[in-house]
Each structure stands twice: as C-alpha cells, then as structure tokens.
Design a protein that fits this description.
- It is built from nine helices and ten strands.
- With 347 residues, it is α+β, with helices and mostly antiparallel strands.
- The chain folds into four domains: 130 residues, no CATH class; 57 residues, SH3 type barrels (Roll), CATH 2.30.30; 97 residues, Alpha-Beta Plaits; 33 residues, no CATH class.
- A five-stranded antiparallel beta sheet has the order 4-3-2-1-5. Strands 6-8-7 form a three-stranded antiparallel beta sheet.
- Strand 7 and strand 8 form a beta hairpin.
- The protein starts with a helix and ends with a strand.
C-alpha cells in the first residue's frame, strides 16, 4: 500500500508543475490519511523542536560539564539541565498544538482516561517523583532504607531512583556493590528510613559478655574509658547539631555520650556499649573499640570474656556457690561411686 501511495504521489508530481508538488503531496495525505496541511506542519515543528532541544542540551553538557571538578556538582548540573530541557520542550510542543487541542476536548478526555488506566504505574511513579522534588525525603548522597533495600542514593529519575546497596550478606552496613533500581511509587506506599537527613548519626551497640567470675565492675569501667576515647569527640559534635535538627523534627535525647549497660545472660554478665557513629563509619569505629577492649582485657587477669562451656562436677559439690573459684569446682578429685553431672555455667 505504501508503494502504491508513493507511486500515486510521483505520478501526481509529474503531471503538475514543480511548484505544486508540495500541494499534491498534502492533498494525497489529506485524501488517504485525513492529515491536513496544518496538522502536518505541527508534526514537523514538533519533531524539529525535539531535535533542536536535544542538540542544545548535548552541546551545553559538553561545554560546561568539564568545569565541575566535584562529581556531585557535575551530577547535579547534568540532571538539572536534562530536567530544564524537558520542561522547555514540553512547553514548546504544547504551544504548537494548543490551538488544535481546543477543538478536541471530549476526544482527548476519553483518551486521557484510557491512558491513565493503562499507565497507572507510570503515573504513580511520576507522582512519587513529584513527592521527592517537593518534600525532599532524601537527596542524592543520602543513605536510606525502603522496601527491604538499604543503600546510598546515587540517582533520582522521573520513574525510579537508584541505590548503591549496603548490608544484605555484607556486615556492618558496607556496600555489596549491587545497584538497585526502585520505582518512585514505593515512596507512596512503603515507609522510608533516612540514615543521614536531619540528624547525621546512628546509634550502635556492642555486646561484651564476661564470665561470672570476672570483676565485671572493673570491666565496665574499662569499656567506658575505651568508648569515650574513640567516640567522645563525635558525641560533642552531635550535641552541636541537635538544636538545628529540632527546628524541623521533635528530636530529643537526654544524653548523647556513650553509655555502658549491665545485664545478665546464661553464660555471664553482659555489658552493652551504646555509642553514636557516622552511618558510613560504623564498622571502623566498632573495630577500633573492640581492639581497645581486647588490649585492655589482656592486661587484667581477673577479667575474661565468656563463651559457652561445659563443666563436670561431683555430687559432693553439687551445692557449691555459683561464684565459687574454679579450683573448688574443677580441681578436686572425684570420690569413687559419685555420680557425675553437668553444669553449663560460664567459664
């Protein structure tokens, strides 16, 4: 059919003067496809606008992108330029077609309803993107968790945003190397946790279990000294940030300094160190604290870390006190004929 139309256009052009070739082509389109010359002109103008704006955006990107040394600033420039060019293109094309749209209101209403139903997910993504632009629940560079995924935001687009994933099979919230694309509509249905917005620190806890026979009070004092050495300056910085954070959110902490809590477990005395850490430095801080703890405990003969143990004792000493010295439980010779039991108390 296309070949027949082209052949008809060629025959019409040969039968008429060259000055009427365009008119003949327009007549052919109007007769066979119902496309008027005015509509054809608007289609061509729309295509020209798209091409022109694409060329201008690429030229501006090449000319100005190299002036940004900071990767974050360069990314924001390219994204802003792409958004601005898209808006200008839509306005320009809308202006071209505005006159024709006035006469197609009812038809466009039906078409819009059908498109909205068929593309409801994409429309929800656009609504989510508008929410990001308006409420700013996160920005590029923030660390967030949503829909079961956690990571650093590395890109925000009109239909989706992208995370550089952390956690999963990797400990201490470090990067897995995977890039996760999440539809913007998830913002409208799933809760989102931001690690870095408003208050750029997170609380971290380190459980330290010592034996019942250990001097747990001395161990607690040592833990307090070690954690203060590693996180004291960070806690003081956090105190300066709290007044700024409370301007938008009701964030209230009685204390921001590190604390050591005492509890009891089956295998010993549990001392839990609670301290502030920067989200991306949590593993490094935890490593420094543990190394300080191990070095300090190595110099104290009356402090030992607890671990699951099994003890053998005779019936003669079944009623021995729990905190009795080890020799009383382990080094006595078992009388013949005594039954042997098991004790899972800490060693």
């Amino acid at each position: 059919m296309i070949f027949a139309l082209l052949q008809a256009a060629a025959d019409s052009a040969q039968a008429q003067p060259p000055t009427t070739v365009v008119s003949a082509f327009q007549t052919l389109l109007d007769t066979n496809f119902g496309i008027s010359s005015e509509t054809l002109f608007k289609v061509l103008m729309s295509l020209a606008t798209l091409v022109a704006m694409s060329v201008i955006r690429r030229l501006l990107t090449r000319l100005l992108e190299g002036r940004f040394k900071d990767p974050r600033a360069r990314y924001q420039f390219t994204k802003s330029l792409a958004l601005a060019s898209s808006i200008v293109t839509l306005i320009a094309i809308g202006t071209i077609w505005l006159g024709a749209l006035k006469h197609m209101g009812a038809f466009l209403g039906l078409v819009a309803a059908g498109v909205a139903f068929a593309l409801k997910d994409l429309i929800a993504d656009i609504a989510g993107w508008a929410f990001i632009m308006w409420k700013r629940p996160f920005e590029v560079g923030d660390r967030i968790e949503i829909a079961g995924f956690a990571g650093d935001v590395v890109d925000i687009r009109i239909f989706e945003f992208t995370l550089l994933e952390i956690g999963n099979w990797v400990d201490a919230d470090q990067s897995t190397g995977r890039v996760v694309h999440i539809p913007n509509q998830k913002l409208l249905s799933d809760p989102i946790a931001n690690y870095t917005a408003e208050f750029p620190y997170v609380w971290n806890e380190i459980p330290v279990l010592v034996t019942f026979e250990s001097d747990w009070k001395k161990a607690k004092a040592i833990l307090a000294q070690v954690v203060e050495k590693e996180t004291g300056e960070l806690s003081r910085r956090a105190e300066d940030i709290i007044p700024r954070a409370t301007r938008r959110l009701l964030i209230s902490y009685r204390t921001l300094s590190a604390t050591v809590y005492t509890n009891v477990r089956d295998s010993g005395v549990l001392l839990t160190v609670r301290h502030l850490a920067e989200p991306r430095a949590r593993r490094g801080v935890q490593e420094a604290i543990w190394e300080g703890i191990l070095d300090a405990f190595a110099e104290e003969p009356d402090i030992e870390l607890a671990y699951p143990t099994r003890r053998m004792y005779s019936a003669e000493y079944r009623d021995a006190p729990l905190m009795a010295p080890r020799p009383q439980l382990l080094e006595r010779e078992r009388p013949s004929g005594d039954t042997v039991g098991e004790d899972t108390r800490s060693g």
